[in-house]
Amino acid sequence: MQEATDLFIRHFKFWDKLTESQKDLLNQHTRTVHYQKGTQVHRGPLDCIGVLLIKSGQLRVYTLSEDGREVTLYRLFDEDIAILSASCTLDEVTFEVYIDAEEDTEALLTDAGAIRSLLDANIYARCYAYEKASRCLSEMLWKLQQILFLSADRRLAIFLMEESEKLGSDEIHLTHEQIARYMGTAREVVSRLVKYFTQEGLVKGARGKLTILDKKALQEIAGM
Amino acid sequence: MQEATDLFIRHFKFWDKLTESQKDLLNQHTRTVHYQKGTQVHRGPLDCIGVLLIKSGQLRVYTLSEDGREVTLYRLFDEDIAILSASCTLDEVTFEVYIDAEEDTEALLTDAGAIRSLLDANIYARCYAYEKASRCLSEMLWKLQQILFLSADRRLAIFLMEESEKLGSDEIHLTHEQIARYMGTAREVVSRLVKYFTQEGLVKGARGKLTILDKKALQEIAGM
After folding, report:
1. Which candidate, A182, A171, A165, places its Cα nearest to that of A212?
2. Domain range annotation of chain B
């Protein structure tokens, strides 16, 4: 799979430390996968699919409480690598994440068995995997800390500003339920805050849609 | 420093992968340090003291919000290793922690400069450091997630049960302010919950002290 090799060379800085048979192993155990929008890609401790290298689309990485509450941790786009979908091969990584396809997504998947053999046999590959994991885990900690320490109004303001920037639009097509899920809070909290933001003239709400009216005031609440 | 070498051999699984001069480097840049109870050992992004190997005492690792709220992440006891006090040498670890001495503590400190040279020169030492960091970061994530997802009453019940087990006593000598800090919540929340627990006959409160009266009921709230 020449395409895989080219991507591996570009992304895996340990590539030139591999033996020829280790390179073959990776190539032979890598295949192209397609996930339809809305598909569950990786279900925490229930799965260990392997390492994903995203070619196009969008994956959402999140954590899940026992009673079903979600917190979005980060998103993966073109050429990003998902290492935590192979966390079963990393004994020191004990935190499990869930991954869904937020858009139709195409990726290269290297299966967990091959990854485990490689990490056991090659210290450079192993070190790369743990460095990558450390970066992900650090960013997830930062995110959870933000959520834990911030007041809900500030979190909603930040969420709306970020979402609007990402979309390049002042219209955000999400229900209160969906926003609550992204923020890791309850729907009631979002509804109460949206009501307050509406009264203050910051946003205008309609069914399944929020329009930002006063960006400057929102930015102030967000502390941006 | 023969004592240091003995401890390193026991704790650093990469020791036999080091050259003689790398072993010398570690030994020459390691010294015994003493921290009095209450001392700030490591102040997040302001410090990079190096790697600590605890000989006796207790260190508390915590995170801190901009407005001064703390959340205790974990504690280090005899023969534990603090790697995140050398996080400046680990470029992929971007989450900063604070460390205080909770008891008078004696430790071996290997300075950050020597650690950085070693991690740059030796892939086994580097991989060990990132594995260790991944474990710490995973556990911290688990802790923050628990706090984020649990209701405050359950968190207080868990805290009281854990504290009582650790002390081997039903009497917990902490103020509401201190308990709030350990739990990462506000003092008012703890006071309200303690009042409720008292009314239910679960605990008895006095100035700076809480006595557990009904362990079984607390366990049920804790979901243990």
Report:
1. A171
2. 2-148, 150-222
